[in-house]
Amino acid sequence: MEHEKYSYVEALKWLANKYGIEVEESFVSEEQKEQYQTADSLFIINSFAEKFFIDQLFKTEEGRDIGLSYFKERGFREGVIEKFRLGYSPESRTAFTDEALSQQYNRDLLLKTGLIAERNGNLQDNYRGRVIFPIHNNSGKVIGFGARILKTNDKAPKYINTPENELYVKSKILYGSYFARAAIDKADECLLVEGYTDVVSLHQAGIENVVASGGTSLTIDQLRLVRKYTNNLTIIYDGDSAGVKAALRGLDLALEEGLNVKLVLIPDGEDPDSYVNKVGASAFVEFVNQHKKILSCSSWSCL
After folding, report:
1. 114 touches 163 (CB < 8 A)
2. pTM over 0.85
3. DSSP β-bridge partners for residue 132
4. What residue numbers bound the domain in which 203 lies?
5. Residues 233 and 262: beta-carbon distance below 8 Å
6. Domain boundary at 125, 143, 168, which?
7. What pLDDT does 156 receive?
8. Beta-ladder partners of 145
């Protein structure tokens, strides 16, 4: 429980799974059993999809020329790409769909994951032509995906995320928490940024006690996830007006949860991703330490 920051029940389930012991839960309704079975099936499909996207990124010409080139242009080295298990979904309309159905994965469950979509009565890939950011739970299992478009297309959203299902509930997720747990515990501080690439770039720079909110307002569940590791939260957002508003949304919840909250605004139209690549890890850490503003119930509304 201490090492993994699990609850007692989570720790029992983790140990049972590790040693192949079946855990029977008492007082579980038929509806709950069905939910558990669906969740297990979604985990299996997501794991399969993660491997598919990784193979597409590293083992196909299209993946290397488009997806891997994009990551390297962003400054990501292969070590951090492999660590976060980043991938690529090819342009083909049915590459993943065909592979998943050939492996006899259930059509309805595939639709529930958001990996495929039904349009005009036909099944097709939902993330085609995008780089893939798998989202892991606290035990390292894939619960969903973020998919970033690479082509310039005003009609398509920049990011597509997994729809909410038995595994993926956006308000309860902090991207990168699985990779940041030990570092947050050691530093006794959690750095909160907005985006996937902010987390990846900071990890590559050796700043590993960082998670992302995904650009949404902070929620009680996200803040309680932070509190499992530390009471000290430092929010690092863009210095523009949108960044300030994003940082302050939900701040009252953080203070009510008893967290010690500080705010750092990145200057000159930069974000944490671009700024750490611009100035380097040491200068970034120095900037954060020098520009932390302590927020309280009486002061934050004045910023």
Report:
1. yes
2. yes
3. 87, 147
4. 172-302
5. yes
6. 168
7. 85
8. 134
Distance from C-alpha of 147 to C-alpha of 127, rounded to nearest angstrom: 6
Q: What is the pLDDT of residues 275-284, one digit of tens each?
A: 999 999 999 9
* Window from 42-56, 163-177, 254-268 with minimum mean pLDDT: 254-268
- Distance in angstroms (rounded) separating the CA atoms of residues 111 and 108: 5
Across all residues in the chain, what is the average pLDDT? 89
Here the tokens at position 2 are: 């201490």
Q: How many domains does the chain have?
A: 2
Is 279 domain-assigned? yes
CA–CA separation, 184 and 266 (whole Å): 21
Same domain flag for 191 and 262: yes
pLDDT of residue 302: 41
Shared-domain flag, residues 40 and 137: yes
Contacts of 22 (CB under 8 A, 6+ apart): 16
Residue 8 lies in a domain: no
Query: Rounded distance, CA 276 to CA 98, Å?
Result: 40
Q: Is 5 among the domain residues?
A: no
> Looking at the domain assignment, is residue 49 inside a domain?
yes
- The DSSP call for residue 25 is P
Per-residue model confidence (pLDDT) at position 257: 87
